[in-house]
Design brief:
By secondary structure, the chain is of the alpha/beta class. It is built from nine helices and nine strands. Helix content is about 35%, strand content about 20%. The radius of gyration is 19 Å and the shape is globular.
Length: about 230
């Protein structure tokens, strides 16, 4: 892949053998920003677990204290009072069979779906559509719940879901480059704390093998996990 001169210039300023303290890495990203738009900041983590084994899957949710900087479109599957509750909480789309039929027709113009438990009979028909897109509600991530108000507000306020992929990596957005340095550091700390709390009991050896941070257009900056870990313990 051919990179721009600005990207290559940025990369030359990074010591690729070094692992940077989080605050220093964030400062590097902000000081060397060259894109004309407000880039997303992303953290990637490689874990020492084998996702092929069910007892070593790593997934969960975390509410980022400063949000992600992105407007999250929430679809809620609910009826009656719960549907009214979803609307009042700020859900973008609310429905039941009608919403399911719309999705069967090819519409998936939302970022996350929430459902009350009784709606799973409807959602079962949408697994092949929502599953591959990561949009299927799941009790483990708090998106199948009777507390619709809390779920919708947390999701719109900055709650994100993370899940390990087949290569044992997890990558999530933790804000925008326009955020203050302290806001980005705080969000990364919240995410890494959630990763540590999600450590499987069956995991052996080193849990976090590596971590890095980047923006939409930048190269990755390796993070010093020992420094990160110490910060999380404070």
């Amino acid at each position: 892949m051919k990179h721009s001169k600005k990207y290559l210039s940025f990369r030359e300023k990074i010591d690729r053998r070094k692992r940077y303290p989080l605050a220093d890495a964030v400062k590097i990203l902000k000081e060397n920003k060259f894109a004309k738009f407000d880039e997303t900041v992303e953290v990637s983590v490689r874990l020492g677990v084998d996702p092929k084994h069910a007892d070593q899957m790593v997934r969960g949710t975390v509410a980022l204290p400063n949000g992600t900087g992105k407007t999250v479109r929430v679809a809620v599957f609910a009826q009656g009072d719960k549907a009214a509750e979803a609307t009042a909480a700020g859900a973008d789309f609310v429905g039941a069979e009608d919403l399911a039929e719309k999705i069967k027709g090819g519409w998936t113009d939302f970022d996350v779906a929430v459902a009350t438990p009784d709606m799973m009979r409807i959602l079962g028909q949408l697994g092949k559509i929502l599953g591959p897109r990561g949009l299927m509600p799941n009790p483990k991530t708090g998106t199948v719940t009777m507390d619709i108000t809390r779920a919708v507000k947390e999701l719109r306020g900055g709650r994100i879901e993370f899940r390990i992929d087949r290569q044992s990596n997890i990558a999530v957005r933790v804000g925008k480059i326009s955020f203050g340095e302290a806001q980005l550091v705080e969000n990364v700390h919240a995410f890494m704390d959630a990763i540590m709390r999600a450590k499987p009991a069956s995991a052996k050896g080193t849990y976090v093998l590596s971590a890095s941070i980047c923006t939409t257009m930048s190269p990755g900056v390796k993070l010093d996990f020992s420094e990160l870990s110490a910060a999380l313990k404070k």
